[in-house]
Amino acid sequence: MDHWDLLLTDARIATMRGGAPDPYGAIEDGALAIRDGKIAWVGPEADLPSHWAEGARSLEGRWITPALIDCHTHLVFGGDRGGEFEARLGGASYEELAAAGGGIMATVRATRAAPAEELFRSALDRLEGMAGAGVATVEIKSGYGLDLDTEIRMLEVARRLGRASGLTVRTTLLAAHAVPPEFRGRPDDYLAFVRDELLPRVAEEGLADAVDGFCESVAFSAAQLAGLFERARALGLPVKLHADQRTDGGGAALAARFGALSADHLEYTPEAGIEALAGAGTVAVLLPGAFLTLGESRRPPVGALRRHGVPIALATDCNPGTSPLGSLPEAMGLAARLFGLTPEECLAGVTRQAARALRLQHDRGTLEAGKRADVAIWDIVHPRDLTYWLGRRALAGLLVAGRDRS
Ligand code: DI6
Ligand code: FE
């Protein structure tokens, strides 16, 4: 092999390889070669045959990492809930606001009323903000439509965001997010509609890469969601779950039973649930933006997750109600401060482990030969700085499938 499309030299490389003996899988004085959008070679520059270095791009000692992956967002939505935020600061609870027609239902009304173009424009703005912080892969959930047309419109908008931005967008059907007004008091009828009509249609049109549910006392129980998950699996779609965020609803155990890609939130998950996740190989996705915004005090069980070897990912949970957080590096900084994760765990959580939460680990999440050349270039002294600093714009460049994006 003697030609590269792009060769980066004089780089400090946080490969984020799993099981690497060096922290961050780091390679000092490294080089990384790209061909056909993939990483063709990565290692110490001294090991490169010298004539290959011709035409290389020197990074002048900058750090590179895998491009970041935001594996849990509700990026597509209509309207705005800033007023609710103020009301909550004034003492109103999330539950009170929801009972008064606010909360998720306020966003459902606004999303139903919004034309696709408007949903697309506002979400593209948020997506570009994420890319500006080093993110190249984003998961986007539906769940603010709760009817056939709007759920499909949200997923179509999400797919279009991927095509228009050049970033990778993975879509998730979250119709089991709340009971819509048309089905008030009849959650099982609503879930039957999702299971028998909406989900098969979404699967047939290839609009979703996974199926999610909100397993919570204010939403659906584990028993209610099991039927939906069975159908999802029968249609070949993997599942994910909003689990045990504000109460222990047996969410982690449900996720594990269905071999979920991830179980997300987990503040109230008991040890048995964590053991189940470990056995199923399910990723724990922690969401410090929602924890902070809701003023939670019970932290997710990080010690038990570590002890049982459950992979820990982090995401923004970007949504207009409980996590108005548009920056994944800020989620890292918050996870360290609020949950006690190490900076290395935080970076792994938005690269290697986040890839796994989206079943993309074969293709991205670490800097290794054969993987997609999604690479973030940083003006930092050490990879821990990505977690240490809050609100610092440290991105110096972003390669997506080997091409310059910024
Ligand atoms: N978990 C949450 O915290 C949110 N949805 C979810 O599944 C709430 C989203 C919202 O308030 O709009
Ligand atoms: Fe969420």
Q: Would you mind describing this structure in some detail?
A:
With 406 residues, the chain is α/β, with parallel strands linked by helices. It has helices at 82-89, 94-99, 104-113, 116-131, 148-165, 187-204, 222-234, 251-257, 271-280, 288-293, 302-307, 328-339, 343-349, 352-357, 385-388; strands at 6-14, 26-35, 38-44, 57-58, 63-66, 68-70, 135-141, 168-176, 210-215, 240-243, 262-265, 283-286, 312-314, 375-378, 395-400, 403-404. Strands 1, 2, 3, 4, 5, 14, 15 and 16 form an eight-stranded mixed beta sheet that branches. The protein has an eight-stranded parallel beta sheet with strand order 6-7-8-9-10-11-12-13. α6 (187-204) packs parallel to α7. The protein binds 3-[(4S)-2,5-dioxoimidazolidin-4-yl]propanoic acid and fe (iii) ion. The site of fe (iii) ion has 5 residues, from loops.
The strand count comes to 16
The largest pleated sheet is described as: 8 strands, mixed
For the termini, the CA-CA separation is 29 Å
Bound molecules: 3-[(4S)-2,5-dioxoimidazolidin-4-yl]propanoic acid, fe (iii) ion
Q: Label the structural class.
A: alpha/beta
**Mean pLDDT, as a whole number?**
96
Radius of gyration: 21 Å
How large a portion of the residues is in β-strands, by DSSP E? 15-25%
List keywords for this structure.
alpha/beta; binds 3-[(4S)-2,5-dioxoimidazolidin-4-yl]propanoic acid; eight-stranded mixed sheet; 406 residues; binds fe (iii) ion; globular
